[in-house]
UniProtKB/TrEMBL annotation:
<comment type="subunit">
    <text>Part of the Bam complex.</text>
</comment>
<dbReference type="InterPro" id="IPR002372">
    <property type="entry name" value="PQQ_rpt_dom"/>
</dbReference>
<dbReference type="InterPro" id="IPR015943">
    <property type="entry name" value="WD40/YVTN_repeat-like_dom_sf"/>
</dbReference>
<dbReference type="GO" id="GO:0051205">
    <property type="term" value="P:protein insertion into membrane"/>
</dbReference>
<dbReference type="InterPro" id="IPR017687">
    <property type="entry name" value="BamB"/>
</dbReference>
<feature type="domain" description="Pyrrolo-quinoline quinone repeat">
    <location>
        <begin position="74"/>
        <end position="297"/>
    </location>
</feature>
<dbReference type="GO" id="GO:0043165">
    <property type="term" value="P:Gram-negative-bacterium-type cell outer membrane assembly"/>
</dbReference>
<keyword id="KW-0449">Lipoprotein</keyword>
<keyword id="KW-0564">Palmitate</keyword>
<keyword id="KW-0472">Membrane</keyword>
<protein>
    <recommendedName>
        <fullName>Outer membrane protein assembly factor BamB</fullName>
    </recommendedName>
</protein>
<dbReference type="Pfam" id="PF13360">
    <property type="entry name" value="PQQ_2"/>
</dbReference>
<dbReference type="InterPro" id="IPR018391">
    <property type="entry name" value="PQQ_b-propeller_rpt"/>
</dbReference>
<keyword id="KW-0998">Cell outer membrane</keyword>
<keyword id="KW-0732">Signal</keyword>
<dbReference type="InterPro" id="IPR011047">
    <property type="entry name" value="Quinoprotein_ADH-like_sf"/>
</dbReference>
<comment type="similarity">
    <text>Belongs to the BamB family.</text>
</comment>
Length: 382
């Protein structure tokens, strides 16, 4: 029942609501014309099965060495050369994948709607181990060479032994009554396991035993209805040096000191899709479809682009001198980091672009809802 509630709620919020009266709902902003300053050049593209599927999944490809790994909702996992798109191996798991892809220390990791975590060999795709956890896994597992960290839909953090998937420890937290469908991917360092929860809190645990090191509330639920009180941390966390950046839905964006959880700064914000950082700025894809840049030291808003309102944006990624975001019609937009103006645009997948773009050096990888994975580079306009 919880699965149905969160799924329906996410669809309601992301579709900008459905009214029972005759009042016409605001429509997504029409795309405006602009003079492109750079060209996004397609290097290769490949279809990854059924892509995100009909459920609100956020399957995101992962880079590891010279390869890129992607999964679809039906359990197809594909390893490809990241510069040519040539398939290295395929593995059909025949289970509904909802969390992935995590990769590192020789493993490719995915979570399922049936509450399992599967580890595949990074070189061959062969299954290394498979284990069951408490509930569905909606975000990529993390790995640090000792444990695999999984965050489940019921706000549990579970540490699995990297060698065989056996449970090392489990941390329980009471989830909110209503949540958006999804969880942010947890983070791992050698000493800390860090996660954002549906309650608007961030928790850091000792990796060896799962004991709390610190807990910090970023957003306080407000309002009379449970819908108004949703403060999920769904967009994931961003770690840069000793600073942890986090943003919530209907709450705040904040910078925390990694070792203590102390709040360095905070400001009002609402996002379900995450945060990016570059050139001394923090970038947010806000819930209303705006893209905002914030000075990471003074918390001053540097610019705000409101020309993509209600277009259900993906999380942002920093790509060269630009900020890249996708939208519900499958367009990838490049915005200038200086002032937020549009500099380029390309359509990836007509079914939409929900997954955050993945960037490595001069390459960007966009994964569309229907399964089209495209590798792009930047060229100056002639």
């Amino acid at each position: 029942m919880r699965w149905k509630t969160t799924a329906l709620l996410a669809l309601a919020v992301l579709a900008v609501g459905c009214s029972s009266n005759d009042k016409k709902e605001p429509q997504p902003a029409e795309l405006t014309k602009f003079t492109a300053e750079v060209k996004l050049k397609k290097q290769w593209s490949r279809s990854i099965g059924d892509g995100q599927g009909k459920t609100y999944n956020l399957l995101t490809p992962a880079l590891y060495g010279e390869h890129i790994y992607a999964a679809d909702v039906e359990g197809l996992v594909v390893a490809m050369d990241r510069e040519t798109g040539k398939v290295v191996w395929k593995q059909d798991l025949d289970v509904p994948v909802s969390g992935g892809v995590g990769v590192g220390y020789g493993l490719v990791l995915v979570g399922t709607l049936t509450g399992e975590v599967l580890a595949l060999d990074v070189e061959s795709g062969e299954q290394v181990w498979r284990t069951r956890v408490s509930s569905e896994v909606l975000a990529s597992p993390a790995v640090n060479g000792d444990i695999v960290l999984v965050q489940t839909q019921d706000d549990r953090l579970i540490a699995l032994n990297i060698d065989d998937g056996s449970q090392r420890w489990s941390y329980e937290s009471s989830p909110a009554v209503l949540t958006l469908r999804g969880t942010g991917a947890p983070l791992l360092t050698n000493q800390l396991a860090i996660a954002g929860l549906s309650s608007g809190k961030v928790v850091a645990l000792d990796t060896s035993r799962g004991l709390p090191v610190w807990e910090q509330r970023v957003a306080v639920p407000q309002g009379r209805s449970e819908l108004e009180r949703i403060v999920d941390i769904d967009g994931g966390l961003l770690l840069s040096g000793g600073t942890l950046y986090v943003a919530t839905y209907q709450g705040r964006a904040a910078a925390l000191e990694l070792q203590s959880g102390r709040i360095l700064w905070q400001r009002d914000a609402s996002t379900y899709s995450g945060i990016a950082q570059g050139y001394g700025s923090i970038y947010l894809s806000l819930a209303d479809g705006s893209v905002e840049a914030i000075d990471e030291r003074s918390t001053t808003a540097l610019w705000r682009n409101e020309e993509l309102t209600r277009r259900q944006l993906s999380g942002p990624s920093v790509f060269s001198s630009y900020v890249a975001v996708g939208d519900f019609e499958g367009y990838l937009h490049l915005l200038s980091q200086i002032d937020g103006r549009f500099v380029s645009r390309i359509r990836i997948d007509s079914a939409g672009l929900r997954s955050r773009p993945v960037v490595e050096g001069d390459w960007l990888y966009a994964y569309g809802n229907d399964g089209k994975l495209m590798a792009l580079t930047i060229e100056p306009n002639d």
